[in-house]
Amino acid sequence: MASFPAWYFDESKMAGIDFEDIAQVEAFDRRQASSTPEKEQALVRRLGISSGHTVIDLAAGTGTFAIQASLNGASVDAVDISQSMLAYARSKAQKVGATNINFHQAGFLTYKHNNNLADFVITKAALHILPDFWKIVALVRMAAMLKPGGIFYLRDVIFSFPPAEYETSINDWIERSAKPKDEGWTVQDYQMHVREEHSTFAWIIQGMLTRAGLEITEANYPTPTLAEFLCIKSVSSI
After folding, report:
1. Are strands 226-233 and 214-223 parallel, antiparallel or unpaired?
2. pLDDT single digits (tens) 3-42
3. Pairing between strand 226-233 and 101-105?
């Protein structure tokens, strides 16, 4: 891996989960209620990913989206900072015959895309690991990996509630979403996320996307703590 300045953010030191512990990787995969093969295949079809397309899945995790994109005919670069995640994802891909995936151990800030520019760059439930300064760096880097007119898709914990209502909104989110340990993310998991990770407001993300040279074509807020953005890479960038 290339060397970086001493001030560069270290993505390997993520809060909450030891992603080099295979037991935690397996538990993480079981908890991903929003990332089932059926839901990811629906997203693949919604985005129009098909044979001949090139896709970069950044922070690919246990590989469910990358696998579904590959099964739909795309050539996929699945990128994750965790070697254990990648090994687990590779095993899953082999079991279902998803062969058109290249796996890369890297992060938002370190992955170097050496192939042709991609038709799609996807990242889900991961950008929040970066503080806001590094989010825009990551978005600029991801936009540079896309063809002009290429599609960028982001889904993450992103806050759309009024800032003055932060306390009530966060408490409501945790109360509504937390589950027992064996069924999903717990109260403690959500508390840790707010306390130690870097989810931010939708209006901040919107500005970052635009500054990165991405035109927002669709913005959805299913809940006050979840958002998704569908963007097209502008011909000109910052």
Report:
1. antiparallel
2. 789 999 998 876 445 556 666 666 666 666 667 899 999 9
3. unpaired
Question: 203 CB contacts (<8 Å, ≥6 apart)?
Answer: none
Q: Considering its fold, how many domains does the chain have in total? A: 1
Predicted TM-score of the model (pTM): 0.92
Please identify which residue in the block is written with the tokens 């927002």.
216
Q: Where are the beta strands (DSSP E) in 41-145?
A: 54-58, 75-80, 101-105, 118-124
What is the enclosing helix (H) or strand (E) of 84?
Answer: helix 83-96
Please write the tens of the pLDDT for every residue from 86-112. 999 999 999 999 999 999 999 999 999
Q: How many CB atoms lie within 10 A of CB 128?
A: 16
Look at the block and give the residue holding tokens 């800030």: 109
Which structural domain, as residue segments, surrounds residue 33?
A: 22-159+198-233
CATH code of the domain containing 132:
3.40.50.150
